[in-house]
Amino acid sequence: PFKNLKDGFLSVTPPEEGIDAAGFNINEGKSTVSITVVGASGDLAKKKIFPALFALYYEGCLPEHFTIFGYARSKMTDAELRNMVSRTLTCRIDKRENCDEKMEQFLKRCFYLSGQYDSQENFADLDRKLKEHEAGRVSNRLFYLSVPPNIFIDAVRCASLSASSANGWTRVIVEKPFGRDSDSSAALTRALKQYLDEDQIFRIDHYLGKELVENLSVLRFSNLIFEPLWSRQYIRNVQLIFSEDFGTEGRGGYFDNYGIIRDIMQNHLLQILALFAMETPVSLDAEDIRNEKVKVLRSMRPLQLEDVAIAQYKSHTRGGVTYPAYKDDKAVPKDSLTPTFAAAAFFIDNARWDGVPFLMKAGKALHNRRTEIRVQFRHVPGNLYKRNIGTDLDLATNELVIRVQPDEAIYLKINNKVPGLGMRLDRSNLNLLYSARYSKEIPDAYERLLLDAIEGERRLFIRSDELDAAWSLFTPVLKELEEKKIVPEYYPYGSRGPVGAHYLAARYKVRWG
Ligand code: NDP
Ligand code: BG6
């Protein structure tokens, strides 16, 4: 029952009654959780972390005793932090009853300390402040590293040496990017492990907290009709599509060092692929699921240069409005070759998926915003209705679409008789549109992930061997692209993307959905 015994509770006397399966002390009078947002003055903290913490508080998901500390170099008082945070709490919760009152109560639990990320003394000050609030209870401490990656190690060193809990657990959420390639990622892991056990490290990939990504396993493993079809026998190809209708404005400095392959494919899309393609795990335990994800990642062929198409957006004028080129961003070098769009074809060399192309496509500044998984099924052998379908048989195969965002939905394209006296078929959708089926709003991914980190649930976080396997698929091709200075194709801001993505798909007889 004590799943997380290793995690902090090791250092205290054996758990007593009142410790739940996640190792959490439900005897609230005795324990407290302190959440420190390192980099609290930043964009992610304002946009996502504080609103998610408030939503959890509003829903009654935070423990009775909790404190939130913002920590960053910027000078701010508690009141200024509260003021800053309150402006970002215009989340979905806002519309509901008692929101103002709840917000006030929440803000009273938020404090701020200004300090350097590499100063043990400053973190010792934080430790003292945390202790004041913990008031002698068992203290569990969560640090959320919401800072640029070059600061991760300093912050972890100082937090672990000067501010880790003396009698409860200490956990650290680390934001991406986890390195730029296999070597830098391994170096980051080694450095983190100087100060933390793997069990204390929660590497976040917020796509794993998205409702429809979590639902993938439910869809596959709790519906009889899907799993038998989930293989090369019935599936022609799988497409993982990410598109955004805005560019890298404001994040050009970060983006130019990474590019779309590292920003979206190596993590968000690959994680979805792993969940989609893994074998049935032994159980729903975090380690069983992560073992299966690692297995499938290790069965994949590293990406080859000929299986990649890259592109970058250029300026475009539409309706009198001029949209900027990627390179118009002041933080981006004028000769940058960094891709803002990429398409790639992957193969999984195992019995289930041999020969099935898994195509990924990710791009910024495209014509729409969507993230989808599209599963195209094979043709019906000896189809009796071939003649009634029309000339393009490919268009008449079944397709399952899992729309992760926006307008979350799962729909299946089937062939259907058009009502009437004739015998003409068309393709219609069996459609599960979430907004029509479920009235409750879908929580933000960060809410689920923060709650899981507090409860010690690691299922949705990335283990280090998973990360190694993910990087080994991309590192050789990223090096080759950079060493050979491959010039990206250019596509206009707001377009459907470059033609290269279609050529790549056509090599494998795939048409993008
Ligand atoms: P910011 O650039 O806003 O940085 C956060 C804080 O870190 C800043 O407010 C600043 O605080 C401090 N900081 C920034 N640059 C430096 C520097 N060069 N040296 C020392 N301190 C610095 O980052 P975000 O909030 O956008 O992102 C935080 C983390 O989350 C990053 O790792 C990012 O890659 C990741 N991420 C961000 C997303 C987003 O949407 N923003 C999405 C997904 C991941 P101060 O000066 O007060 O110390
Ligand atoms: C982040 C990327 O991880 O995900 C951003 O760094 C991207 O470039 C973002 O915009 C997309 O997240 P979401 O949840 O808005 O789809």
UniProtKB/TrEMBL annotation:
Residues in the signal sequence: none
The molecular function terms of the Gene Ontology recorded here are: glucose-6-phosphate dehydrogenase activity
Q: List the pathway annotation.
A: Carbohydrate degradation; pentose phosphate pathway; D-ribulose 5-phosphate from D-glucose 6-phosphate (oxidative stage): step 1/3
Give the highest taxon in the source lineage. Eukaryota
Outline the extent of the Glucose-6-phosphate dehydrogenase NAD-binding domain.
Answer: 37-215
Catalytic activity from the UniProt record: D-glucose 6-phosphate + NADP(+) = 6-phospho-D-glucono-1,5-lactone + NADPH + H(+)
Q: Residues in domain Glucose-6-phosphate dehydrogenase C-terminal?
A: 218-512
Q: What does this protein do?
A: Catalyzes the rate-limiting step of the oxidative pentose-phosphate pathway, which represents a route for the dissimilation of carbohydrates besides glycolysis. The main function of this enzyme is to provide reducing power (NADPH) and pentose phosphates for fatty acid and nucleic acid synthesis which are involved in membrane synthesis and cell division.
Please identify the protein, giving its name as recorded. Answer: Glucose-6-phosphate 1-dehydrogenase
Classification of source organism: Eukaryota, Viridiplantae, Streptophyta, Embryophyta, Tracheophyta
